[in-house]
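Hi V.,

You were right to ask for the full record rather than a summary. Here it is.
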Amino acid sequence: MMILPNFFRAQRNEIDVTKRLKFYEVFVTNSSDKHFAKERHKTTLEKRKISFENTKMAFEKMKMTKEN
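Predicted structure:
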């Protein structure tokens, strides 16, 4: 298991530790799951594509206003 940030500091409160462990357990298993990683990557690419299209549209608008 990897060393987690603030893990030892949280040991003062036992409930907090169990919550953190459950969260990290879910997080680690999900991120190691190939399908999950693939889906996450796909959404990242979609976000980049949308961002690129928005930038392109803004640039074209700027060019049109410059011409007028």
